Amino acid sequence: MQTTPYYFVKPQFKSVWTLKEILKCFELAFGLKVNYSKSKVSGVGVNIGQTMIFASILNCDIMKTPFSYLGVTVAGNHKRCAFWEGVLNKLRSRLCSWKEKSLSLAGRVCLIKSVLTSLPLFYVSVFCMPA
Q1: Does some domain include residue 1?
Q2: Do β-strands 72-74 and 40-41 pair in parallel, antiparallel, or remain unpaired?
């Protein structure tokens, strides 16, 4: 079974121009301005030449992949163990700072729950973690 790739915007000129028009409508409707100097475009699975053209249409910079968005790595291979090292390192560093021997079982459970909820659970909810 072949899967269809998901795009925020399809890598086509028409789609990029439509996105630019949507942003202009947003500016007119809400009176806010899009700061294109702070905006970046990234092409996941798109060649760099096409991404450069799209960035020039949108008047913004290019962001290299993989990148981190809200603590989650985008455009990494989630089936590789290296993809999950960042999540595991955060979990270890937060749990190791406590002295586990001085906590009761209920205290340990409470600590683990608080650490897990503070980590980006988007990883676990979207990607299937390898054993």
Answers
A1: no
A2: unpaired
The three-point CA angle 39-70-32 to 5° equals 40
Q: Which domain holds residue 86?
A: 76-126
In a domain, 8, yes or no: no
Same domain, 43 and 87: no
Tell me how crowded residue 41 is: count the other CB atoms within 10 A of its CB: 22
Per-residue pLDDT of 66-124, as tens digits, reads 777 766 666 667 777 777 777 777 777 776 766 666 777 787 788 777 777 766 666 66
- Answer whether 45's CB lies under 8 Å from 7's CB: no
Same domain? 24 vs 44: yes
- The answer to whether the pTM exceeds 0.70 is no
